[in-house]
Design brief:
It is a single chain. The protein has three helices and nine strands; from the N terminus they run E-E-E-E-E-H-E-H-E-H-E-E. The strands form two sheets. It has a seven-stranded mixed β-barrel with strand order 1-7-6-4-2-8-9. The chain has a two-stranded parallel ribbon with strand order 3-5. Strand 8 and strand 9 form a beta hairpin. Helix 1 runs parallel beside helix 2. The relative contact order is 0.28. The mean pLDDT is 91.
């Protein structure tokens, strides 16, 4: 499967897909030290984000999510890329600040609601994200 999306932040990432069943707040929902989903109410509680292509319909929560994203990148436990059904400027801010501080950077792309549903319904696999200034491509090899 190949999806064309809107580039939110340029970059390239590869890894196993982690398709979230529900939206996630990074503030209080992700441990910035381990990179795991830390909200015990989330269906994927305990799942590691590090090195994975994180696919989520949308992020929820406060502006503090940018600080958590920064910490994930600083601690080298961030996703390899984030694919969103709806753009989240707060997560982008965390990636931009990390890049400015010299930490690793990751691509973010918006594939829209339909793109998110196609990935979700395909269940699992590996992905490769390439996001440039004008175009973003997500290639998914389903398991």
């Amino acid at each position: 499967m190949e999806l064309i999306g809107a580039p939110v932040h340029a970059g390239e990432g590869r890894g196993r897909l982690l398709v979230l069943e529900r939206p996630l707040s990074f503030w209080g929902g992700v441990d910035p030290e381990t990179g795991r989903v830390s909200d015990p109410r989330h269906p994927q509680y305990g799942e590691p984000l590090g090195g994975r292509i994180l696919v989520m319909e949308r992020a929820i929560g406060s502006s503090s999510s940018s600080a958590i994203m920064l910490e994930l990148l600083r601690n080298d436990v961030a996703p390899a890329a984030i694919v969103l059904g709806s753009t989240d400027a707060i997560l982008v801010l965390g990636v931009l600040v990390a890049e400015e501080l010299g930490y690793a950077s990751i691509p973010l792309i918006d594939v829209g609601r339909n793109g998110f549903e196609r990935i979700r319904d395909g269940s699992g696999g590996r992905g490769h994200v390439r996001a440039g200034a004008r175009e973003a491509i997500l290639r998914v090899a389903l398991a």
